[in-house]
């Protein structure tokens, strides 16, 4: 099977945006870059030391996703060498696993020399992730609002999000499995109605590009944040400080432990500086949404 060396670039993502639980995702301008070249057997090399423990092919999510995709197609992949660079922090609720899965799917497609519809890529990624929010955003870019139940999948894609983004990352990892373990098995009927209404208005505001309303609705979640916020030092104080600094709203990023803050476009650095001074135990940074999803191209040496 003939193929040339190539590179895959995948954006990070944040998910939920409050009551858009397991449904809404936003691609962020942080990247996972995978350089793929020929090899006699699978070999993975990470440039970031925090990822080095994932270098074994047997437990590597990129390779697992590539192999899983090939198996669904009834195909066998040739081995490859993967050199991985990333500025997506591991285990911080910024879609590191979804970006790896998306990268693996794209690697499979390139190695086999086939075309695959975007919806099929999202479906495979959703099957592996268990929910479509992060994976759809990393594959498609921009904002995604998704429904997934078994094989029934629908994604509404909003390419542009005219906002600034502030991220507050605590010093410790918080595993998704641990975070999901905090959630109740059932929710009170009234809380479900209220949070569902907030999610509906959030989605409508996102489609309209009204981040002032979207930011307010982000903070009205009852599906997951009330059960997780105790794990975040100064959660209530940070939310109040975000509003005082002029942010539209804040939410737990995915399962945490990062906090996602929506800033008016152009004010993200100012708001980040203000929050960093008040909460120095968090690593505060600013970025922007990524309108582009996953992309791959022949590597030019």
UniProtKB/TrEMBL annotation:
Keywords: Amino-acid biosynthesis, ATP-binding, Cytoplasm, Kinase, Nucleotide-binding, Threonine biosynthesis, Transferase. Residues 203-280 form the GHMP kinase C-terminal domain. It is found in: Cytoplasm. One of its GO terms (cellular component) is cytoplasm. InterPro entries: GHMP_kinase_C_dom, GHMP_kinase_C_sf, GHMP_kinase_N_dom, GHMP_knse_ATP-bd_CS, Homoserine_kinase, Ribosomal_Su5_D2-typ_SF, Ribsml_uS5_D2-typ_fold_subgr. It holds the Pfam family GHMP_kinases_C. Its EC number is 2.7.1.39. It is an enzyme of class 2 (transferase). Coiled coil: none annotated. One of its GO terms (molecular function) is ATP binding. Pathway: Amino-acid biosynthesis; L-threonine biosynthesis; L-threonine from L-aspartate: step 4/5. ATP binds at residues 89-99. Residues 60-142 form the GHMP kinase N-terminal domain. Its main location: cytoplasm. It catalyses: L-homoserine + ATP = O-phospho-L-homoserine + ADP + H(+). Catalyzes the ATP-dependent phosphorylation of L-homoserine to L-homoserine phosphate. This is Homoserine kinase. It comes from Planococcus koreensis.
């Amino acid at each position: 099977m003939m193929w040339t060396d190539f590179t895959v670039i995948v954006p990070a993502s944040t998910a939920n945006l409050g009551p858009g639980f397991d449904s809404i995702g936003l691609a962020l301008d942080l990247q996972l870059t995978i350089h793929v070249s020929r090899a006699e057997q699978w070999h993975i090399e990470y440039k970031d030391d925090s990822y080095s423990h994932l270098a074994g092919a047997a437990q590597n999510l990129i390779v697992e996703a590539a192999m899983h995709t090939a198996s669904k197609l009834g195909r066998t992949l040739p081995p490859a060498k993967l050199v991985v660079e990333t500025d997506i922090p591991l285990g911080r609720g910024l879609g590191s696993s979804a970006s790896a899965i998306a990268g693996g799917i794209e690697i499979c497609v390139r190695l086999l020399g086939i075309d695959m519809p975007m919806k099929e890529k999202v479906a495979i990624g959703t099957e592996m992730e268990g929910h479509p929010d992060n994976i759809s955003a990393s594959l498609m870019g921009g904002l995604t609002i998704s429904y997934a139940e078994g094989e029934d999948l629908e994604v509404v894609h909003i390419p542009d999000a005219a906002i600034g983004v502030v991220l507050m990352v605590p010093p410790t990892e918080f595993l998704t499995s641990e975070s999901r373990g905090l959630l109740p098995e059932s929710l009170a009927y009234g809380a479900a109605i209220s949070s569902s209404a907030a999610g509906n208005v959030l989605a409508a505001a996102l489609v309209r590009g009204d981040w002032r309303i979207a930011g307010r609705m982000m903070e009205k979640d009852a599906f997951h944040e009330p059960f997780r916020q105790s794990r975040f030092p100064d959660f209530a104080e940070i939310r109040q400080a975000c509003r005082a600094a002029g942010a539209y709203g804040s939410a737990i990023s995915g399962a945490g432990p990062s906090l996602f803050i929506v800033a008016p476009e152009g004010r993200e650095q100012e708001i980040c500086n203000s929050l960093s001074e008040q909460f120095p135990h968090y690593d505060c940074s600013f970025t922007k949404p990524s309108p582009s999803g996953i992309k791959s191209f022949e590597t030019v040496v």
